[in-house]
Amino acid sequence: MNFQNKNSRSYFLNPECYFIQDYLCAYLSNSLNDIEKKNLENHLKNCPACYFEYESLVEFKKELQKSIGDKDIQALFKKK
């Protein structure tokens, strides 16, 4: 599976990427434990595809906060 960023570069996701992307919302809501958080941050430093996905979610979260408010949005980003 490839991934395109806004600069039209293609990236291939490795198996770890699927795990990381499952945890991005939990990371944004500060719901990960310290080990999960550190592992995710290390991966984001080295993976342009996942970092792009993270940045996209940050922007999406900001837009939602403008629309529905911070209190309601935290429930949407909780780890399930």
Q: How does this model look, in words?
A:
The chain has 80 residues and is mainly alpha-helical. The chain has one domain (15-76). It has 4 helices and 2 strands; from the N terminus they run ββαααα. The protein has a two-stranded antiparallel ribbon with strand order 1-2. Strand 1 (2-4) and strand 2 form a beta hairpin. The longest helix has 21 residues, at 48-68.
Question: What's the number of helices?
Answer: 4
Poorly predicted spans: 1-10
**Total separate domains:** 1
Radius of gyration, whole Å: 13 Å
Q: In a nutshell, what does this entry contain?
A:
The chain is mainly alpha-helical.
Question: Keywords for this structure?
Answer:
69% helix; mainly alpha; globular
Layout of helices and strands, plus pairs?
Blueprint: E1 2-4, E2 10-12, H1 15-28, H2 34-46, H3 48-68, H4 70-76
Antiparallel strand pairs: 1-2
Helix pairs in contact: 1-3, 2-3, 3-4
